[in-house]
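Sanity check

After download, print the first record. It should look like this:
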Amino acid sequence: MAVVKVYDQNKQEAGDITLAPEVFEVEVKPEILNLVVRAQRAAMRAGTHAAKTRAEVSGGGAKPWRQKGTGRARSGSSRSPIWRGGAVIFGPQPRDYGFKVNKKVRRLAMRMALSSRLAAESLMVVKAIELPEVKTKLMADVVGKLGLGKALIIANGADEKLALSARNLPGITVQNVEQLNVYDVLRHKQLVLLEGAVEPVQERLK
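Expected structure tokens:
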């Protein structure tokens, strides 16, 4: 059972917290993380690409020249795929790139991602981040004191003041518990859980 220190926003120790082993001490299997991240990335693709087929290219209704007697190859349309300005053979069409991953596998991958951050000592629990006003400079001071580089900060519920203050800081991402996902956890080197978000995360993943 992992016991980690809780810090305030000035990185002064403010107590300890016990993290559920079934959420934060799971054996990490790269193939499962890879599957879920690929599914997330595939779902992000717009899939709006398109190329025109022979049925869609305008023109080409008239036969360019007669079938026989010209010495040239027979041709029925100037919009043939082998002609310049013609159609595209097997061109891309709008499609959905997403594929299904079972809910249990997604939840397992989330537990593995959190466990990997704890095992790498890249997980920090902060009591709270309280800012008097929406100001990037104030948030930058907090980030500096906590020693954060590329970090994902998880809050319990929408914290608009925190999110707006952090959005212009390179490498810093603020999300709530509902937005927590495997891809964002893995692409940030550090994970910061506000103390109020720890229990909801554990309840969601137990």
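If your output differs, re-run the checksum step. Summary of this record's structure: The first helix runs from residue 21 to 24.
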